[in-house]
Design brief:
This protein is mainly alpha-helical and about 500 residues long. It has 19 helices and 2 strands. It has a two-stranded antiparallel sheet. Helix 13 runs antiparallel to helix 14, helix 14 crosses helix 16 and helix 17 runs antiparallel to helix 18.
Amino acid sequence: MGHPAPIPQPPGTSTAAPRLRDRLTIPVLASGGILMAVMQTVVVPLLPDLPRLTHASAATVSWMVTATLLAGAVLTPVLGRAGDMYGKRRVLTAALGLMTVGSVMCALSSDIGVLIAARALQGAAASVVPLSISILRDELPPERRGSAVALMSSTVGIGAALGLPLAALVIQYADWHTMFWLTSALGALGVAATWWAVRESPVREPGRFDVLGTLGLAAGLVCLLLGVSQGGQWGWGSPRILGLFLAAVAVLALWWWQQLRAERPLVDLRLVTRPRVGLSHVAALLTGFAFYANSLVTAQLVQAPKATGYGLGLSIVATGLCLLPGGVTMLLFSPLSARISAARGPRITLALGAAVIACGYAVRIADSRDLWMIILGATVVATGTTLAYSALPTLILRAVPAAQTASANGVNVLMRTIGQAVSSAAVAAVLVHHSSPVGGVPVPTLHGYLLAFGMAGAIALVACAAALSIPGDGPTGDARRAGGATRGARDEAMEGA
């Protein structure tokens, strides 16, 4: 049987556009991750002024951060699973679209209820990174995959470092709504670029969507994270907080039972409980805790009044610029992380990253009075975070079937989010407990900051130990079979085209 003759290319057509789209896939996905992180941080400089601007209480305004946290935690694993089932590019574009709609709502309104709802919509963007990583696995050859995944993981820190000074500059020189108009334009550009430059992955896991599992996970996570985020304000021993934690335990226990019996579960718990996957999730939680304390404490420390004896009294803009070197470092060190993972395995990269984070906090404990030492310590922590965050998705990709990469990475990002929420609550509790009045206002003492650094450094060392306990890095049988399935699906799609 003869080979089919090649179909002649229609006059006037060119392969230049597809080739350009292929070259732009990584930059477009990375810009989406950076934009997501910028969206999450731009509201932070506004928080002190929002009660006056919106005629709402400070407690109500704080929900502009809490709503994004809760929505992101709930939607990340849900949208990851939807991406595995219905198409990763389709769900990624929808997540960026919701983020953009939320930004437009913030630009158009000063009503606190509308703003909180808009920020909840923006929480959908938390799924951008796991969905993008899954697309990179499906579309890139192995020799390019490691560096691309490392860059994608680093976008969280890069965007966070860029968002704070950007927002502070806009707020200082323009109306605060201008900031959201700017992010709306960037979001719309991101949606269009993603739809044009990113191919739809042929790798799918068809089946019926687990609505009951989704509702159960949402209820359990809302109770858990609401209790963690509001414990300091409502009182850790208050009936509301205790009730939320008890409800979280009960609901999540029932959810676990339901997931083990579901034919197509939202989260494959049998996969999660494998040591290579489960310990990677534990390391993600601990690393998220250790990383987040750096941003929280550094921002407060350098803005503390000089009357404290240690504070530098810097403005919000100057504070953002102090964190900027860390973002640049994350961009520069992501290729190094990929090379270490290729040579030694992502388990070693993760352990090294956690150890570097601990070293960064040791620098912070040694000297937190001089600005250059503060920037140095924060940058060292950011460097370790780059190594750790870049290694985590590679560990997941090597341990799970290709058809479950988006949902598995979504769970991993969820664990980071929980770690960050717990870190925020723990750091706040330490600083509140170690405060003294300055000008009639309670301000954290230097001892309180040093305790927070020590706590975060100790958690980083525990993360290092968890990373070293992960079984060997070689691809599992499931991952190898999944790789074959991915290549087969891509070949079929190309033949059909």
